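Posting here for the record, re: FE2/S2 (inorganic) cluster.
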Amino acid sequence: MNRPRAEFLAEALEFTVNGRAVRVRTPRIARLADVLRDELGLTGTKIGCNAGDCGACTVLLDGRQVCSCLTALGQVEGRSVITVEGLARQEKLSALQTAFQKHGAAQCGICTPGMLIAAADLLARNSAPRESEVKDALGGVLCRCTGYQKVVEAVLDVANGPRLPLPPAAEQAVGARAGKVDGIGKLTGSESYGADAIPPGALWMRVIRSPHHRCRFRFGDLREFTARTDGVARILTARDVPSNGFGIYPGIKDQPVLARGEARFRGEAVAAVIGTREAVEALDLERFPVKWEPLPPIMGLDAAMAPRAHWVQAEKPDNLLLDGGVRKGDPASAWAECAAIAEGTFETSFVEHAYIEPEAGWAKRAGDRIEIHVTTQTPYMDRDEVALVLKLKPEQVRIVPSACGGGFGGKLDVSVQPLIALGAWLTGKPVACVYTRPESMASTTKRHPARIHAKFGCDASGRLRACEVDALFDTGAYASWGPTVATRVPIHATGPYSVPHVRTRGRAYFTHCHPSGAFRGFGVPQGAIAHEAMMDELADALRIDRLEFRRRNALKVGDRTATGQLLEHSAGLAECLDALAPRWARAKAECEAFNRENRSHKRGAGIGCMWYGIGNTALSNPSTIRIGLSTEGALTLYNGAVDIGQGSNTILTQIAADAVGLPMSQMRIVMGDTDRTADAGKTSASRQAFVSGKAAELAGLDLRRKLFAAAGAPENEWRDRRYKLALEGRRLVFRKDSIAHRIEIPGEIVGEGFFDPPTAAADENGQGIPYATYAFAAQVAVVEVDLELGTTRVLRLYAAHDVGRAINPIQVEGQIQGGAVQGLGFALMEEYVPGRTENLHDYLIPTIGDIPAMECILVEDGEPLGPYGAKGVGEPGLIPTAPAILGAIHHATGVRMRQIPVLPHRLRAALASALPTASKTESEAGALR
Ligand code: FES
Ligand code: FES
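Prediction output follows.
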């Protein structure tokens, strides 16, 4: 809803906020959320949708939770409002906030105010709620990061447990279940996200977007429109953009900042209106002078690949973006050796990231420099992209990341950045832009829809002999991360198994959809659905237990991968499967017992495995981290890696603190500011713990060496870990046994660490070393299917992950749980349809009511290259979940679903077509090994 115009200003209206009386002169129809944020400065209340779908704006109104985005100011007159800022008392966290910090219940933190308020409402009415009551009470608040389990644990801890203070910091930080170093701001509402610190007086921007999948367009008289529209300062079009192309790859800058003449997807930006906030929010888009001429779009893979199909980009023949693959051995001749062969085609949909914080930021010009405050996953790529678009030098651009309210890959591409930079550059005034939820969903990247044909064969002993995989991806109108997906998938398409004969291929095609980009896994989750179904079918064909079949084929140290890479260390899939084996056996037995007693509902257990190469594929992937100790004794981690909620600020602090030998509680952090940090690369591909973590370790060791040198210690004395270091104001203490040596800090001392994991480019057959290390995992899902309704409920999930070393087990568990719940959504409910699901009530993501009981099992097969043995876990949490769920559905029903998400109508149809063989299905389900 647009903000009410000034002529409707009402009488002063009074109410209390956090116990203080307030008086505002804002129209009664204003949204309470806007009044809290804009009039009263209480930006702890977040806006994720402005439509009552996400719950991020939840506040207490006379003690009961309400969505403040749906509450008119007039409704609160004379009443009491409590926001997240009102939960702490005299700067002391409430028991609830303390429990959230202790349990790691906040990741990115954008939903946390809403969660805390909903929980506070519950606990005020019910001091000892059951788990189901917690889920009911928090059911209106969406979280895309945590998977909800730690939120539930935190609330139950307050309700039922002793109200313990936060545990004291462990002496050794690595391995400790430390609370987030940036957690307090997320719990109190003081953390600043992309839309929270826009300077007063900034101009605002509204983007004009194509309403058609494909169209030509022509502007009318923009000058006249500007002149006759109060408050509009300027309109930007393609003509204003110095270099009108951006994109992830240096050689593929194919996406215009503002389209010129033709729009290639619904939601593509064609113009940007800059003016006062009131003016741009009140814009009547129907009156904007543009004429659209719709053209027939290319929608979907079949249309893109059709003979004589229109080319979405004129210079990209046959709509093909990339064709990549891997060849090893000779599958064609190996099929003859196989005792069993499985084959199938699987289809997946567009999936929306659905981070709760829409894209937002503001920019200002300072002389010949531009400064951009923005929610992002990748400040250095943003800097270079903006410099390119504005034809500036990279040093002329400063990116200052705000807190990031979720990204999952979707904030790796620029969104508002070039637009607000251009606006501020040309007007000389600060310019802000905050995407609406529909705008965010329509215009930003999605997970690639895939069609994957897989064929796997094994010998009579159940050893895999050959595989052929052909993966097609819909990459949308522009390249974005399409090349990465089409390259990464063929490498991972064997699954985490040893296969001697391999032929895999990945192709990405352009269509008239929003670009497909990076989304937690870069295509590997789609590929895993295919290879895991094949493992199930081969195991069943040979009547080998599905877990045992995977165990027999699991990649291990000493094996070579499909790209010929020798796994020299850290390949813990077999350990993951061993850890799951007793749970798997129990789950199968319980399902079969249930199924003997029930006809309308059937239960099943499924297993999914994965491997994931950490970091960029066969590319340089460096990170530089610095740690400074000032003369005043301030210890600062200068960290260019953005924490998008996954906890890198915390774990890099843990690693750095232990490497130096000082307590992590004394280390402050500067995150992502391109003027103050070095380039640590993007937060993606599960790389920050491994790559930036190693750089942080090396920086810590470098600083320790320099500190000992400053104290005049002998050359290698710094390696002696019996020395305990401490900071006492401006003095540094070196303590060994009972002897302490103190020095004045002589001046700023900086340690620096650089790490670029060793990889090797692929040859023409895809042979090479694409990644320095791989994470491995296996998950078991237990589901219950309602045969009549076609609904599937995931009851339990066991997740065993080889993470190398858990630097912080709370954060690692949080990544696994959050990833797994995204995997659940991918399997069962999430399907983005361009033009139809551009909001959070038509596009469904898992709520707290959808989550299963989850158990995380951390396997630590240390990676010598990584910091203290760590690898990475951001992506791996999601990848095995959908295959495990699909296997469980097959166990329950005998139906192998080949199109996901498994929406109820699809499962019902599949069940109906399987009806003639229902009795066979039941016996098959019962006989699963
Ligand atoms: S912002 Fe109010 S429910 Fe989403
Ligand atoms: S922590 Fe809940 S949305 Fe990020």
